[in-house]
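Subject: sequence -> structure tokens, single chain

Hey, anyone have a minute? Need the predicted structure for the following. Not urgent.
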Amino acid sequence: MHGELNLLHPIAPQQSDTLVLDALTRYVAQSGTRVGEKLPPERVLAEGLAVSRNTVREALKRWEALGIIVRKKGSGTFLQSEVTANDSFLSLRFKNDSATMLHALEVRRIIECEASALAAVRATESDLLFIEQKLGVMEKVHLSVGSAGAEDWQFHAAIYTAAHNPLLLQMVGGIYDLLHAFFESPPEQALFSDSFPLHRTLFEAIARREPETARRLSNDILNITERDMKEVINAAR
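Reply:
Had a minute. Here:
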């Protein structure tokens, strides 16, 4: 029934579920699976991608939340939304849930600008060293592979920690999943490159104890994020 399973190719076992979903997107598009048709079992997909069944299961949960698939107990997983070869998890997310993504960014802006200002006032010397360490890792990865989504998140999380209000990190953590695709977009979708140098400028403002400058720079970074998001939304339509 699924003779096209040779279209599945192993991916590195430590890759994120975003990349698993991109691999599944290519499979669905290339195999010609149509809306209403059944996908192979999780076991078969996991074997084809050389990842664990749990990794595939977690990835499919993201598709299910977006309405791309429907999972019927006892029957299997069925395609519910059209998937093309040009799609990625990022574009599918925007096709199906762009409004929520932009709302999540708006919430992040409200929290993050103030968290940066608080960090400029409250950060200890050890906090500053930790933020700078995360910044260095982000810069190294970005310059090496063209993007550093996971490392970028660690940098911003260090700033939240330095604000010394644990609720701030918990609050933004609640919307992190909505922005997950952006933080883990692969290098060929290198987003937000224009904001890359602003991250060091932001750290320097925090280290100089300049809350207003830190607040403004955080807003500038998120302006670029919003611009790039809207470009992806328009391209996905």
